Structures are given as C-alpha cells and as structure tokens.
Amino acid sequence: MATRQTQFLARSLLTPAVGLLFIWMIVPLVLTIYFSTLHYSLLDPGSESFVGLENFRYFLTDPAFLASLQNTLVLVGSVLALTILLGIPLALLMDQPVIGRNFVRLMVIAPFFVMPTVSALVWKNLLMHPVSGLFAWLASLFGLTPIDWFNDVPLLAVILIVTWQWLPFATLILLTALQSLDEEQKEAAEMDGASAVSTFIYITLPHLARPITVVILIETIFLLTVFAEIFVTTGGGPGLQTTNIAFLIYSQALIQFDVGSASAGGLVAVVIANIVAFFLVRIVGRNLEA
Amino acid sequence: MGQITLQGVQKSFGPVHIIKGADLDIADGSFVVFVGPSGCGKTTLLRLIAGLEDVSGGKILIDGKNVVDTPPAKRGLSMVFQSYALYPHMSVRGNIGFGLKMAGLPKDEINRKVEAAAATLNLTPYLDRKPRELSGGQRQRVAIGRAIVREPKAFLFDEPLSNLDAALRVQMRIEVTRLQKQLGTTAIYVTHDQVEAMTMADKIVVLNGGKIEQYGSPLELYERPANLFVAGFIGSPKMNFVTGEPALQKGAATIGVRPEHLKIERDGGGGWQGTIAVAEHLGSDTFLYVDAGALGMLTARYIGELSLHAGDRVSLTPDPARIHRFDESGNALRS
C-alpha cells in the first residue's frame, strides 16, 4: 500500500462501504436529535411543535431517570463482577484435562445461544416462580419459605439471569487465554518454588489481565442495553426497581407515547455510554497496549 | 555442594521408552554437557533431574539423597529454559527476585542479591525494564540471573543458546563457561550442537536413542570414541568410515579416520586414490570432498590454503597412529 496508485485504489474501493455505513448511522442519529426537540405525542398526532430543550429538561428531572441510571450501573457492575469472578475459576476448571472435556465445554457455552427472551421466560416460570419454580421447591425441601424473586429482590433476580447468560462468554475468553499461557513459564515458576496459589497470583492472573479487559469492554457495551430480560420478567417493576435506562426510554416512547422525551432519553443514553466508555478505557484500557 | 548421581534412571511415556536406564556420576563443580541428535532423550533426562517429569524407575541422588519424590523447588536446582520463560509482566528485578520472594526472604536481602546477580551479568542498567524491552542476549542473561540468584546446588541449561544468532551464541558460550567456573557450581547443559559441547564441557555425555553411549572429557571422546555413533557424532567435519579391504587389513570391520588425519598428496602418492568432488577454501582451512571409488566419499582437511580444485586427482594417506578400529557391532577395538 505504498504507492500513490494503490492508496487511491484502496480509498476508492472503500468509499461505498464507508459511505453506506455513514448514512446507516447518521440518519437515525439526526432523526433522533430532530425528534428530541419536538413536542411529539403519539396520542395526539399532527400536533408536533418545536420545544427546544424542553424534552431534555423533562427527562433529566424525572425522578425515574436517576433511579434507572442507578439501576443500570448496579446491573452492569454486578454482572461484570459476577461473570469475571465466576468465569476465572470455571475457566481454570475447564482447562484441566478431564474425561468428556469437549462435552463439558459445549454445555457451559450453551446459555450463550439461548435467546434472552427465552432464557428470561425459563428463569421466570421454571426456576424463580414462587409457587411452581425449582428454587421454591428446593427451599420447601429444606423447610424454608420460598423467595418471591421478582417481588422481594427483583434487581437481584434480573442480575442473576443476565449473569447466567454472560458467564459463558467470559469463561470462553478466559479459557482461550489460559490455553495460550506458556507452559515453560509455569515450569519456571515451579522451579522457583511457587505454590499453586502463588503461580495463579503472580503468573496466571497477570496473564489474564488483557482478556479480562476485553470481557469488561465487550460486556459493558451489551449490558448497558439489557432489555428483554426486564421486559419479560418484571416489566421494570415493582415501581422503578428494575427499570434501567433502556427500559425507561422504551416506556417513554411506547407506554407514555411521548416520542420527543424518549428521543431525548436516547441521546442521554448515548452520552452516558460514552462517559462509561471513557472511564473504562482509562482504567482498564492500558492493559490492551503493547 | 552439588554432586548428582543417576542410578538406572528410566522414563517411559506410555509404551514409549524415552530413557532406557541411565547411570551417571556428576562431580561437584563440574560442567557436564548432554549432547545427542534430536529425540535422543537429552532434554527428558534434564527434566527428570529437575523434577519436572517423574521417573519411571531408578534413582536420582543429589548430594547422596534420593530426590525422585522431592518436588522441583526443594531439589535446590535452578533451570534456564530454551524459551527463557521470563515472566513478561515483571521487570528484570522482579524476574530475578521471584524465586527469593517465593522463598520468603526479606525485601532488602532480595534487593541486595538481585543487584549482585545483575552486576555479575551486566544487567544493572536494565533492572527496571520489562523483558519485551530487552534484546535476545539480555533476556538470556536475565534467565541466567534468575538461576544464579538462588545459589543452587546445580544449574540446568536446556539448549539456552539455540535462539541466539551465531555471533552472540559464541559470546554467550564464553560468558556462561566463565560464570560457571567463577561460581564453581555444578552445571548440566543440554545441546544438540557438538561445538558447544566440545568447547564448554568438562565432561560430555553422548546420548542416542535413550541410552548413554559414552561419558568422558571432550578430548577423550575425540581421541578414543567408544563406538561408531560417538565417533561419527563428535568432530567436525565427520569422521570418515571405511569398510572392506582396508579395514580387514587392520583386523576390523570398520575403520575410521578423521579428516584432519588424512595426509593429502597430489596424484601418485601411495594412499587411497580419488577425485576431488568439491573443494572448500576457507583460508584457514581447506576441506576436500573426495570421491574415492569403492571407498565412497572421503573428507579431508588441510590446515591452511591448498591450491587443489574440483576434478583434481589426489591421494589420501591415513595417519597410522590415528586410525580408529571398530568391530561388526560398532564397538571400538583397542589394541
């Protein structure tokens, strides 16, 4: 790609794809910005009028906004922590040579292929149901009162479901990283007198720093937009206890039919995602260098 | 102290016997090189001594104590790996001091020892760098530093110089030898390079197919090889082997003559007649590859320049005092 001709050729061949992608991104963004400045209610079509930044003021001062922002951060943080804390030991176990290892790996990966809607339904009706769920049955087996997950601890219930879905992803990434750890390094540590625990702390864990970063960054992108699990199980409730930003925007647009306010919320969500990304890249991103 | 004795050490992976009973006595402070072709079991034997593999049979004694059930760290040995196996996220200081840290030494003592080791190896300016910021030779020295700082009973080297370029290899070869003599610590060094073996070793162990073919000083192996394998493996270029009539005259199945022990004369001399196929002129030496008809290809070496060229007829006369005789099974015949 050194000569002027090849550079020109490369650019002209890339242009259609880049241009299409650009339009693909810019049209919804511009429309959202446009809608966010309108009074635009679906209950009252034809009455659209320009209101400036009024929608933003309305969305940001809504008490539901702060509650849902908090829920979003708790949800993302908890799921990240759980998937990594559980993913590391799981990956270490799956790295051991055991009989039927391939089958075990397949089973561990399985939750990742279940649609969020389906897994939420399974958890809601088969596992966490206070009367007919498996957990209720287990609790009654020990003479305990079954937990009514979606009423008593709704956010925890959602966190558990989402963790279950994302644990395979974290495990897989960490497992492949473990397999790339140089065998001679472990042997050198063994010769240096490191115990299994010390080898893990001083050799394995630093080696996992980069894949952990990858897991955090990728999961954050998807966890900020968790929707189906909440919609299917709690519907954002009780009250606002499981409403996150994504669900709040949905409820503005399609429960309160206020498109203008929902568009403003969408733009706020973009800003929040960028703030999170900024801090993430500063905190963990340096692991990706060199 | 670092006297290592192997008694009937065996190792098999499933049905495959890698080491078929090795007996060896390594004196304290000596530099012993394991040399042999790929797959001869030399690295496996080293790993058995290190404790990274379990023996299938036999005993390994370090200072008279059987260590076959002792974990690697407790054997008091340290190892330099072929890939160096440096810890990539630790500085040079952290790498060298890791073993001491694991042994629970106080911080200032670790620092003192690490700095002393770094000074010996000229690594002081690099102590706070990461391995990836170092050149190949420097990484090599860090790996050696990690080995010496623990003051082990013996060093184990697993082909440590094979990743370096030729010039650096010669330099590191000298450095390692000098360091070992200076510290007086027993060293076991694995290589497939017989030049490394000849130049570094006090004693060489020649391995082939999981068996020790010969154990002796470099010159012993050169002058009195125990069998055809050792004769062919030690020395460069390889020894010439001649069978048939000339061998029978000497009362042997095969006779071997080193290239440097063939007297080269222009056509008409009294020795083996042949035509030069290739002549290599190095200035310091001249190597002649001679097609000697029924005797096969013979290699002859002349110290200095000899103006003979491909196609010239020559006659080669072996030095009668330096002919090696072997019986049918390949073992050396001593007169």
Summarize the structure.
The complex is a heterodimer of chains A (290) and B (335). Chain A has 290 residues and is an all-alpha fold. Chain A has helices at residues 4-36, 54-61, 63-94, 101-109, 116-127, 134-141, 149-152, 154-179, 183-191, 196-223, 228-233, 245-254, 259-283, and strands at residues 38-39, 49-50.
Descriptive notes:
Chain B: Pfam families: ABC_tran, TOBE_2. Chain B: Keywords: ATP-binding, Nucleotide-binding, Transport. Chain B: This is ABC transporter ATP-binding protein. Chain B: Belongs to the ABC transporter superfamily. Chain B: Involved in beta-(1-->2)glucan export. Transmembrane domains (TMD) form a pore in the inner membrane and the ATP-binding domain (NBD) is responsible for energy generation. The complex is a heterodimer of chains A (290) and B (335). In chain A, helix 1 (4-36) crosses helix 13 (259-283) and helix 2 (54-61) crosses helix 13. Chain A is built from 13 helices and two strands. By secondary structure, chain A is an all-alpha fold. The relative contact order of chain A is 0.13. Chain A has a single domain (12-183, 210-288), classed as MetI-like fold (Orthogonal Bundle), CATH 1.10.3720.10. Chain A is flat and about 75 Å long. A two-stranded antiparallel ribbon of chain A has the order 1-2. With 335 residues, chain B is an alpha+beta fold. Chain B is 27% helix and 33% strand. Chain B has nine helices and 19 strands. Chain B has helices at residues 42-50, 92-102, 107-120, 136-148, 166-183, 194-200, 218-223, 228-233, 245-249, and strands spanning 4-13, 16-26, 31-35, 57-62, 65-66, 77-80, 154-158, 186-191, 203-208, 211-216, 240-243, 254-257, 262-266, 272-281, 285-291, 297-303, 313-318, 324-326, 332-333. In chain B, the strands form four sheets. In chain B, strands 6-7-8-3-9-10 form a six-stranded mixed beta sheet, with helices on both faces. Chain B has a five-stranded antiparallel beta sheet with strand order 13-17-14-15-16, with no helix packed on it. In chain B, helix 2 packs across helix 3 (107-120) and helix 2 (92-102) packs parallel to helix 4 (136-148). Classes of the chains: A mainly alpha (290), B alpha+beta (335). At the A-B interface, helix 9 and helix 10 of A face strand 6 and helix 2 of B.
